[in-house]
Amino acid sequence: MQITKNTVAQFHYTLTNTQGELLDSSKDRAPLLYLHGHSALISGLENQLEGKSSGEKFVAEIKSEDAYGDYNEELVHIVPKNGFQNDGDEQLAEGMQVQVDTNNGMAVALVTKIEGEDVTLDLNHPLSGMDLKFDIEIMDVRMATAEEIEHGHAHGEGGHQH
User: Which CATH architecture best describes the domain 7-68+127-151?
Assistant: First the structure.
């Protein structure tokens, strides 16, 4: 069976950037399970999975605009340090991810710099601006159930997963 709209595919992947640095891999855990054609994956990867079958191995090279988008300087903000609540022992630190309330709802931001009372937050996805390379092995392809299609995502063994 081929991967087409309303099929559920399982695949293992190793994700690297164009310099060959490992960014993520499913090799030591269960394969990724997703419902095809419902925007569950980045568009460039979903497009390259279309038509593939169980057992196929291939490399998908995805340009940043078809992955997490180009890096956007307008998503970098300097905010006052006193705007953060101190929840117990955890101190605000560079490299920390924080939840922030934006005009579009809650978002995750990376603290990139703390200078005096100024905190620089980056709301770009950590992989934005990067071209990506996925080494893929398709493990299984099956028809989605009516419930999966209605919910817009794949369910693992034993039924519904959040």
Answer: Roll (3.10)
